Structure formats: structure tokens, C-alpha cells
Amino acid sequence: MAERRTRGTSGSDPSRTTAARATAIAEQLHHESCILLELYRKKEKLTVGELVADRRLVSVPPPSSQLDTGDTLWRLHSALLQCRSLLERAIAKEEQELGGGKKGDYETMRKMVKDRLSLLLINTELLRAVDGAAVLTPNLDELELESPSSLFELKLWIYRIFKEVEHWSKTAITTLQGLPSVMDKERARGARLRSMRSARR
After folding, report:
1. Which one of 10, 86, 101, 197 is separated from 42 by 20 to 30 angstroms, measured CA to CA?
2. 61-101 residue pLDDT tens
3. Torsional sign, CA 94, 89, 25, 53
């Protein structure tokens, strides 16, 4: 009996905690991307003065209180997809132009950030499914393609991409924490599943 009760509780847990899990992943990604930025800055000996804030590389509609939950999740998911695409390009370009070198803390953290970003994308897809929104993939062909003309420009371009990941992971935390309707739907679905199980017994 106790075993059945435990199994029933854990069975409904994933649907009730998707938003909380996605938020936790976003928080971890933000922490790791901040470390990655610092490791990269030190590795390439970039000064604060050189790292001038520039326009965003990721392009999504501006945030609005008019957006419903589905649109808000689409905006976030689209931004994160663009971040991953840019990150993959940055890693490939860095390996090609700057050389792989020996693997150290920086390379380990870079891989961790990429893997964590992919995990966050999976969880935002799950959230969109809970909300009933169709999982549409944004068109990444229109993503800004830059071709840095010098080694220094390449280093700054890579830094800007890491900065985008940091920015959007922070935005993800705020966005996910502000989605009570998704949380409510998950709780309602969990309650329905529990009542159905009780009725079957």
C-alpha cells in the first residue's frame, strides 16, 4: 500500500513541477554563464573598457503585458533557441580560429553552459505543451550572421554571444517565475490525475 502511494505521488510530480524545474535550470544556467564570461574575459585578457555594450544579437518581439502565457513562452523559447544556435557557432569558430588548446576550466564551463541551455530548451518545450501551445520552431535563418574581420573582433563577438546567454538565462528566471497560469494548470492537471487514480481504486 505504502509502495503504491509513493509511486502515485512521484508519478504526478513531473507535471506539477515543470515550471519550478525549468526555473531552477535557468538559475543554474545564469550562474554558470556568469562564470563563463569571467573565465573567457581572463583567458583573452579583455579589459572592461573593450567590452562596450552593443545591440542585442537575439531578436524577439519586445515583452508586453498584452502577451498571453503561450506567446510569452514562445518568445522565451525562441530567444533560447537563437542563443543555442549562436553559441554553437561561437564554439565552432573559436575552435577553428583560436585553436582548441588544452582543456581546462574554461572549456569545461563552456560545455556545461551549452548542455544546460539545451536542457532549459527541453523544459520550456514541456511547459508550452502543458499550456496547450503548439511548439513552433522560430526561423533561425534570419539570425544575424556576423563575420568578424579581425581576431580581436572575433573575440568580442564570442564574448557578446556568451553575454546573450547570460542575459536570456536571467530573463528566463523572471519570465518563468511570472507564469502563475502555467503553474495553476499543472496543479490542476496533477489534481485531476490524483482524483482519477482515487476513483479507479
Report:
1. 86
2. 887 777 777 788 888 999 999 999 999 999 999 988 877 66
3. positive
